[in-house]
Every structure is written in structure tokens, then in C-alpha cells.
Design goal:
It is a single chain. This protein is mainly α. It has one domain (2-70). It is built from 3 helices and 2 strands. The chain has helices at residues 2-19, 32-40, 57-70; strands at residues 25-27, 45-47. It is globular and about 40 Å long. The N and C termini lie far apart (31 Å).
Length: 71
């Protein structure tokens, strides 16, 4: 029940954000299951150590290209 309530609240917030054309970020994505869920319910972006560790700005584009090619 607790997870159902959490998901409903998150989906409601995402619905409002989408109607207002606000991009959303899921923070703390811990694994592929959570990343898939965030994408499924409408998050535009994700942020976490699972996706990528902090890095210098010069490394972002090469990292992104490699990560995007693998997803």
C-alpha cells in the first residue's frame, strides 16, 4: 500500500509538471528498475551515482555519448 501511495503522489506531481511544460528530474535513481520506473511514469531526466559519478565538465559529452549508446 505504501508504494502505491508513493507512486500515486509522484505521478500526480509529474502530471502537473507536464501540463505546465516543466521538465522533471528523478533524483537518487539506485538501479535499472528505478530508472525504468522513472521513465515509465514520465520523468524527463534522472540523476544518481548509478547513472554517472560527478565528473569534470570536459568529460560529460564523451560520457553521455557512451552511456546513451548503451541504453
Amino acid at each position: 500500500m505504501h508504494k502505491l501511495v508513493q507512486r500515486s503522489l509522484i505521478e500526480s506531481n509529474l502530471s502537473v509538471a507536464n501540463k505546465l511544460n516543466i521538465k522533471t528530474i528523478a533524483e537518487g535513481v539506485e538501479n535499472s528498475e528505478v530508472l525504468h520506473l522513472a521513465t515509465e511514469i514520465g520523468c524527463d531526466f534522472g540523476q544518481s551515482f548509478y547513472i554517472g559519478k560527478p565528473m569534470p565538465a570536459k568529460n560529460i559529452l564523451p560520457w553521455y555519448r557512451q552511456w546513451h549508446a548503451n541504453t
